[in-house]
Write a structure and sequence with these properties.
Layout (H helix, E strand, L loop, with lengths): L1 H26 L6 H18 L5 E2 L2 E2 L1 H21 L5 H36 L6 H19 L9 H31 L2
């Protein structure tokens, strides 16, 4: 167990190093000091693995650093949960892995749900002034919400507000149902 603790500590430390490096790149993108170069040499090889993924680039937004941090977070959660188990079985490791991955996915989907709700409130209570938040939300939610709504409404000319509310409802129901299913599945796997 000491090896797991040491590895979990190393993963946590590396994750913090990556987060600090990302923050420094946002705050001072042209910074080139010895410390910055050393930090880049430690973190960039890992982060470059995620930059190659096509889905890591959404328009002008590069989410590859986020994906890198998410993977390390999942690994750290798995290591922490395995350390807590008194009896390590294959079913328990699979259950912990599934649970950790689902927790990250659920967090991301919940963030999308909250942003969709905020955008809906903007549609309801503010003028249609375009700002960067609204533009980014609309670029993401207009095609997604119309695709989801088209599964429930056959009228192809439904409004963006209606599409967005259907998307919010569907995502809420999906998160709730899958969460119950994941809890049931991990309980079964833990007993194996």
């Amino acid at each position: 167990m000491k090896i797991l603790e040491a590895f979990a500590f190393a993963v946590s430390l590396y994750t913090m190093l990556i987060v600090v490096n990302i923050a420094l790149k946002w705050l001072s993108p042209n910074s080139r000091g010895r410390g910055t170069n050393m930090m880049n040499s430690l973190t960039d090889p890992y982060l470059n693995l995620f930059k190659r993924l096509k889905f890591a680039h959404i328009g002008f937004i590069d989410i590859s650093p986020l994906l890198g941090v998410v993977v390390l977070t999942i690994i750290n959660q798995i290591l922490g949960r395995i350390r807590e188990l008194a009896n390590i079985t294959f079913g328990a490791v699979v259950a912990v892995t599934i649970s950790s991955v689902w927790n990250v996915i659920m967090t991301l989907l919940f963030a999308v749900l909250v942003i969709a709700a905020i955008r809906y409130l903007f549609l309801m209570f503010t003028s249609n002034k375009m700002n960067s938040f609204v533009s980014a939300c609309d670029a993401f939610f207009i095609p997604l919400s119309s695709k989801v709504a088209s599964k429930f409404i056959k009228n192809s000319t439904s409004s963006y507000q209606l599409n967005l509310i259907i998307f919010i409802i569907v995502l809420t129901v999906l998160l709730t149902c899958v969460s119950f299913g994941m809890t049931y599945l991990t309980d079964i796997l833990m007993d194996m």
